Amino acid sequence: MLSVEINQRNKNYKRSAVKWGLCLLLVTLLALLSACDIPVSTPEEVDQGSIVETKVAQTVAAQSAEEKELNTNTPLPSPSQTPTEAEVTPTKKPTLTLTPTMGKVVVYVGGNTFCREGPGTIYQEVGVMNTDQESEIIAKDPTGMFWYIVNPDYPGNCWIGGKYATPVGPTSNLPVFTPPPKPSYSFDFQRSDCGAGHCHLWFKIINTGSINLESISTTVKTKYRDASDVVQDQEVTESADAFFNSGNPLDPLNPSKAKITTGQTAYWHSGRLRNPLDFNVEVTVTVCSQDGMAGLCVKRVINFTAE
Questions:
Q1: Fold exhibited by the domain 185-305
Q2: What is the mean pLDDT of residues 16-44?
Q3: Structural contact between residues 147 and 137, judged by C-beta atoms closer than 8 angstroms
């Protein structure tokens, strides 16, 4: 037993000697390296440098992947736009709501408007419809531009234009009325009948329509030279309920044709004018289907030089 214990102790001494020898050798090597100025990296320094490089690489890779994902999958938001003045929807003003009488189609006008015997200004006025006044629509003309209504002034019916009229109700169901025919004629200057410094201007009229012509009025505007050779303006109007059979200057004041029927020719002369020769003449002529410049009337303006 004593010999065994001695052997064990000898083994432990040998192990301790080896350990101390290794430690002494390591210290000696470190002293030599330090003396030669050779840099020595500790395990901690190596590990920290590797960690920093690894983190930098990972950060760069992550940023690259994020940018790639944004470029391929996520659309860039468009900048917000403030609407310009033209894009802003204006607020509509409230409008007047018109309610028709039950079972009727009615019409209103925005201003006082003539009601006529036919659809157009050539027809005689037979009534006036006032602003915001209501009248029943009975029919419409083939063009849909005129309304045949109850005359707001007198018994009967008349026509009103759609320019200032506002219909209220189902106008598509209204009957269509064909308007009465219009007077039609030709009116031409024939010659001047002058004497003692005064003249009558003669005109030829032909009835080219289907309505008899029974009255006429002419207004002549022209110039003349007075006794001092100064140019003056003059205007003369002449009206009658009959026409001349011919343009004979020997019988200018005895009209015998009470009316001009379809296809017939008659004559008319102006009022007495101071010598208008060589001046421009403007004649406004109105011919009507009834005496007293009534019924259906047509007005025209012609210009010529008196000779």
A1: Immunoglobulin-like (2.60.40)
A2: 55
A3: yes
Q: Which residues of 125-156 are buried (b: 16+ CB within 10 A; e: fewer)?
A: ebbbbeeeebbbbebbbeeeebbbbbbbeeee
pLDDT at site 206 = 94
Whether 218 and 268 have beta carbons less than 8 Å apart is answered as yes
CATH of region 106-173: 2.30.30.40
Integer CA distances (angstroms), 20 to 6, 30, 154, in order: 22, 16, 144
pLDDT computed for residue 259 by the predictor:
93
Q: Which residue has the higher pLDDT, 188 or 37?
A: 188
Whether the pLDDT of residue 68 is over 80: the answer is: no
Residues in Cβ contact with 181 at an 8 Å cutoff, skipping those fewer than 6 apart: 209, 210, 211
Report the SS3 class of residue 145. coil
Boundaries of every domain in the chain: 106-173, 185-305
Note whether 245 and 264 are within 8 A (CB): no
Assessment of whether the complete model's pTM goes beyond 0.70: no
For tokens 């010659």, the residue is: 191
